[in-house]
Each structure stands twice: as structure tokens, then as C-alpha cells.
Hints:
Elements: E1 4-8, E2 11-14, H1 15-37, H2 42-67, H3 71-79, H4 90-93, E3 101-103, E4 108-110, H5 129-147, H6 151-176, H7 197-204, H8 221-240, H9 249-266, E5 275-276, E6 279-280, H10 281-290, H11 293-309
Antiparallel strand pairs: 1-2, 3-4, 5-6
Helix pairs in contact: 1-2, 1-6, 2-5, 6-8, 6-9, 8-9, 9-10, 9-11
Amino acid sequence: MRPNLVSLFHIDLPAYFAMLAVGFALATWLGARWLGRLGQDREVVIDLGLAMVVAGVVGSRLLHVVADGHFWDYVHLCTDPSRVDWHVSRAYCEHASIGGVWDGARGVCHPREANCLQWAAFWAGGLTYYGGLIGATGYAVYFLRREAFPFWKAADMAGFAVALGLAWGRMGCFLAGCCFGVQTARPWGAIFPAFSPASEAQFREHVLPAESLPSLPVHPTQLYESLGCLLIAAACYYGIAPRKRYDGQVFVWFLASYSVLRTLLEFLRNDERGGLLGLSTSQLISLAICLPLPWLAVQLKRRAARVKEGAPVTLIVP
Length: 318
């Protein structure tokens, strides 16, 4: 675990954002190269990629605030910090890095000061992938229409580019210690250091005496997802894209394969992710994405046939 990758001029560079930046750069380069070979404007892809980063961060943060079970904590953090409960030890609460106020009567920690802007502090953690996908896709629809750029060709590029970028982002999650898994006795189980998100969670579950101890071994679900996304990216780029029968096929395949991967991995994750009906927020979104995919695939096939026949077509967006 290495939350801060390097420190330059007394400014820490978070490992998560460093790895995410590397993934974004590789994905943009690969996507621009692929679309360039198809005779499309590479500059549009680069402009789109830069704007999607901003839209993706906004979307991922907003979904975390709304759906991960912390909405009222952010509200109370602004209006009445004493109503925000942190279930940590007194020593950790009063540690200089936390600066909390210990409530001896209830055995919980409260924030010391109100902060009405904490909900927007994306650099402090709390980002959801699906929120980023929704935000970035929404902006992409607007941008590509404005530029009169073939939407589904760009979507096919995103099919492997997003998977590649996400693979690097999950490596950043591993370095940051977030998105960890449940306990395991497998030899590849990861032990995170003291005061990590994993040790804090195990302390709250009463399986670890204190957060000042290293965590018990857990599934490295971040690396599982990273490997899975690399396989998806390779399958999209080398398998589906060269043989696709219609524009949008790569993107449909990416959505389906990632939704299945994410649904399965959610059963092994142990961080706070919100949920309903026994399923996490991400599992519910995965289900919502998968349900219309057969219909979308049929519509895209029909659209491709009309294009081949020279008939007029309309833009179909997911």
C-alpha cells in the first residue's frame, strides 16, 4: 500500500490519480491510433478524452455521495458535525491526521469542524466507477453530436480504451488500499498496513483489536478487477473489433463482460458500497445495464443493415 506515490515540492501525488492518469493517457493514445487507422479525426478523440475525464470524475463523485450510504453524513458534516459518527478507536480519533472529537458516552468519533464542501473533495477518495461511466457517456453523447462525429465508432473505441484505463485505475486502488475484499486464507491474500481502510473496517467488525494493527489477509479484489479489465480490453481490441459486424458491437460486448465481472467481484468486496435488496449499488447498475443490451444489439444490427442499403438512419444512444 502506497497512498502517495511521490512527493514533489512538498506536494503529495496520490497513487490512485497517478495510475488513473497513466491509464487515461494509454487509453487515449490507443483510441486515437485505432480511429486514425479508420480515417477518423484523432484530434476529436483527444479533446473528447480530456473532457470525459472531468465529466467522469464529477459523475463518479456524485454517485458516491448519493448512493454509497454517506449522503446524510455529508449533509450533517455541513449542518451539525456532531451527528456524523466515525466508528474508530479513541486513539485514532484523536490522532493528528484525523483531529476528531471523541464522544465517550457513545464510544464514537465526530468531526471537529463543519465542512460544507467535503462532498466535492474527490481527491480525498470516494469515487464510483459507474458514476464516472454515466457522467462521461452523457458528455460524450453531447460532444460527438456537436462535432458530427460517428457516435458508435467512438463507442467501440471506448470499449477497449475504458477497460484499459480502468485496469490501471484499479492498480491505483490497490496502492491506496481502497476497494479491498473479504478475509481469505488463500496464499495470495493481501495484508494492508495499520490505519488502512481494511484494518479500519475489520476493527469496526470486531475481528481486529485495533486499527493500529495490520489487517488480516483479504482478497486483493482491486488486482482481480485489474486483471479482468486487461483481459476484456485485449478481447475487445484483438478479438471483437477486427471482426465486428456493426458499429457499437465492441461497446456492447464491453458493457456485458464488465457488468458480469463487476457483479461477481462485488461478492468478494468488503468496503462500503451502498445497496438495496441484498445487492450492492454496482450490482444493481450492472443489472440495469445488461437488461437492455440484447435490444440494443438488435437495433444496432438493423441500423447497420439500413446503412448498407443506403437508407436514412437515426442515432441510437444507450
